[in-house]
Batch of 3 targets.
Target 1
Amino acid sequence: MNASRSSLPRGGAAHFLGVPMSRTYEGRPSRAYEGQPKVLLCIDDSQAVLDYERRILERSGYIVVTAVSARRGLRLATIFSFDAVLLDYHMPEMNGHQVAYEIRRLRPDTPVVMFSGSEIPEETRQLVDAVVPKAEVPSGLLPTVTRLCERSSVD
């Protein structure tokens, strides 16, 4: 089950964790967003990275919820259903493998995208739906997320 307007806190359709849903997005939304927007959770210990991802994804019509710690992101993923989760591998409290494992256990149908500035172990690669090296985020993140959200919409 994906997050729906009726399940959203603080004003129902108007907000999702403080993110206005009626927001006008710059640029042309990807074709996955001709219907209701997809809601993504981005987890990274760097606020600058989260802000960058939010800008890229919101311009394409996604609703983006961010968490600046692994534990907060895992808590959000437990409470709410997201169309996809994007997370960094290297974080201080829990690494991305641990977070991805818990998300898989709690919400096995939620696509998970892992990114990192360094090599990701094969065991982690097998756990997630996609891996995007941080150096390729500018060109690779959006197509990867769009593909996974389209795939999960069809399933």
Target 2
Amino acid sequence: MRLLVTLAMLAAVMVSAAYSYTPETVAVKAGKQATASKSKLKFKFISVVEDSRCPTGAQCVWAGNAKIKIEVSVPKGETKTFEINTETGPKGDQIGGYAVTLESLTPYPNANRPTDVKKYIAKFSIVRLQR
């Protein structure tokens, strides 16, 4: 009986640990704000600093890079502004016990037409750091 109780407690701890470190995602449109549902981190997509990614329909020597400027706020805590990249340079940062990483930036540039800045959407991954 003790073994059964011990195994049940161990399973509960493992499930709660796995749940607490499951990445959360949030998507934010350029010029807009969004709040992550679990962590309650607030994201503001300030601007696209540069987008030199290889356009769709073009042949490029390298993939290029896009850099965006965002502001992230912790509920009742600090606010931090930083620049993150799709390929080169920092792809994320840490704030309030969370790691924030840029997962994707859409749309990709197109060789035949300029990208409308308002159509950019950044998708972020949020992971609670271990204490």
Target 3
Amino acid sequence: MVGFRRRSWLAKCRQSVSREDRHGVCFGMIEKRNLLSPVPGPLENELMEILASGSGDFKIERIVSRGHSSPADFWYEEKTSEWVMVLQGEGRIRLEEPEQDLVLQRGDWIEIPPMVRHRVEATSENEDTIWLAVHWKSK
């Protein structure tokens, strides 16, 4: 869905009086969005939206959890570094090694090095937990 919105925005940009640079970046139409925008209706799974991406596995994403957790026996083990912050709500992250449980509340953030196995143990059930995550390839 995020890709669709981006293509839609790019198509509008190309049809407008705006111009593109040599890298295909469109100038002129800037879309204003809000990280804390509510998600209407039920969420069967976490909502993950890529807000920006670039070279070197760089991406910024917004994640909305509503009482979600990682499936049993599932661990994230990413090749990129990850910086994650809770903007709203609360989440509990478990790191496998070193074994650690971290409760993140509004404004808390952590940096997870590449290949560190981690999982979401729990998120707020009475309000959306909104995360901001930045991924990048470490040197």
